[in-house]
Structure formats: C-alpha cells, structure tokens
Amino acid sequence: MKTFCNLKWSIQKIDKRHLDDIVSIHNEAFPHFFTTKLGSSFLKAMYGWFTENPLAIGYVATNSAGNAIGFVVGASMSVAMYKKTLSKEKRIALILGIVKDILQCPSQAFLVINSVIHRTAHLISAILKRSRNRKELSVHSFSDAYLTSIAVLSDMRGTGVAQELLTTFVNEVKERGHFAIDLIVRDENIRAIRFYLKNAWKKRYGYPRSDGIPHSLFTYVFKG
C-alpha cells in the first residue's frame, strides 16, 4: 500500500469486479472519444477482454476502500493485431453492449448513430486520399506490444498513481520478453504527451486517424 498526502493506494491485476469503476474512470478521462459515445455497456465489454485474454495486460490502482482510482491496459501484440483480436473475440458482446445502452436510454441512439456517421464520413474521406497518404488508414507498429489505455480519476492526478501504473505495465511487458511498446495518443492531449516524454517514450510519427483527429504513435524501447 502506497501513501501520498494521506491517500493510500495499491496496484493489483485487473479483475472483472473492477470493470464498473474502470468504465467510470474512462468516461471521465475520455468524454469525447468515439468508444465513450458507444455507451458504458460497450466499454464494459471492451475492457472485459483484458480480464480474459492471456495476452492481455491490465492493472488497477485501488484505494483503501477497494475502489479503482486508475487503470492501465494493453496487450502482448501489435496495435493492428490487438484491434483484430478484440473485434474477433468480443464482436457479439460489443454489439450487445451498444444495444443494451440504447434500450435502457433511447436518447443514446441518436448519439451512437451520429458518432458512427461522423466516423464513417472521415473514414471514407481517408480512403479517397489513401493514395496520397497511406498513414491515414493504417498504423505502422514499431513493436509487438501495445499500451491501449491509461487513466486516473481527475483528483488523483499528480499523486504518482499514473506513474506507478505505467511503471508496472512496462515492467510486465519487459518480463514477457518484448523489446518495445507502442501507444497512440491524441496530439491535443499535451498533458499525456509530456508524461510519456518524461518517461522516455519517443514519438515515431503523427497521422490523422479515421475520425479526422490528429494522433501520434509513441514507442518505448527497452535498454539492453
């Protein structure tokens, strides 16, 4: 159990019982993300994958009451392979998650449909421009490990929780025998970028994703 200004917390492996807290943290940290707009049930199914697949890596920081105050998830596979695997293994659960949220809150349907239309429009635009810039549709990985997401509650920022989560994740990836880790971050997320740069991550390249928002791929390479 670690302590910061009388706040006690510890790091542990992700578990299904943490999913509701993880979804809440995600919604607070990433309110404008496409996945957020697909609903909490979708997110619960998505993060559930990290409690099931042996190639997944996931940790949570919990307070003295046992509630998650931060999390980090990723996998022992490239960015492209992670997306392909998640879609293959959790497709039905992800779709059912969206349907469940819409049934529970009909107004959610407009948000989901609008988000899908917006993303599809950008994807079509990227396809039309593909011959000029192939990076608009694909990510060229520099490693076979991927940090998918890391977040902490807003009032936990600056406490060292995120640092401990990142360090724990990096250490496990190293123990699994990988030589490097990739992650993708929005260019507008200056706070996160500074955090990664401080921890020796290097920017490889920037590119606009299918949603039209500029992103960059960062890589952490293990020494020796």
Task: Write structural notes for this entry.
This protein has 224 residues and is α+β, with helices and mostly antiparallel strands. It has a single domain (2-221), classed as Gcn5-related N-acetyltransferase (GNAT) (Aminopeptidase, 3-Layer(aba) Sandwich), CATH 3.40.630.30. Helix content is 42%, strand content 25%. It is built from seven helices and eight strands, in the order ββαααββααβαβαββ. The protein has an eight-stranded mixed β-sheet, with helices on both faces. It is globular. Residues 117-138 have low confidence and may be disordered.
Order of helices and strands: EEHHHEEHHEHEHEE
Shape: globular
Please tell me how large the radius of gyration is. Answer: 18 Å
Q: What's the end-to-end separation, in Å?
A: 31 Å
Instruction: Write out the CATH superfamily name.
Output: Gcn5-related N-acetyltransferase (GNAT)
| Tally of DSSP β-strands | 8
Determine the strand fraction and express it as a percent band: 15-25%
CATH class, named: Alpha Beta
Main sheet record: 8 strands, mixed
Poorly predicted spans: 117-138
Provide the fold topology.
Elements: E1 2-4, E2 7-13, H1 19-29, H2 34-37, H3 40-48, E3 56-63, E4 68-75, H4 79-104, H5 108-128, E5 146-152, H6 161-175, E6 180-186, H7 190-198, E7 202-208, E8 214-221
Parallel strand pairs: 5-6
Antiparallel strand pairs: 1-2, 2-3, 3-4, 4-5, 6-8, 7-8
Q: Which descriptors would you attach to this protein?
A:
single chain; 7 helices; Aminopeptidase; 42% helix; alpha+beta; globular; 224 residues
Brief overview:
This protein is α+β, with helices and mostly antiparallel strands. The chain has seven helices and eight strands.
